[in-house]
Amino acid sequence: MLEPILSVGIVSDIEIPFSFQGKYLLNGAEELHPGDYTAYLIDAKIIFNGKFYDEVTFQPASDDASFTLKEVVIGIGFHWERKEVQSFRGSLKLIQENHKITAVNLIPVEEYLKSVISSEMSATSSPELLKAHAVISRSWLLSQLAKKNDLAAKSVTYVSDTQTETEWIKWWDREDHLLYDVCADDHCQRYQGITRASTEKVVEAVEATRGELLISDNAICDARFSKCCGGVLEKFDNCWEPASHPYLQKVFDRAENAISDTPDLTIEAEAEKWIRTSPDAFCNTQDAKVLSQVLNNYDQETADFYRWTVTYSQSEISDLIRRRTGIDFGEIIDLQPMERGVSGRLIKLRIVGTKKTLVIGKELLIRKSLSGSHLYSSAFVVDKSMGENAIPESFTLTGAGWGHGVGLCQIGAAVMGDKGYSYRDILLHYYRDVALEKKY
Question: Number of C-alpha atoms within 13 angstroms, CB side, residue 435?
Answer without folding.
Answer: 9
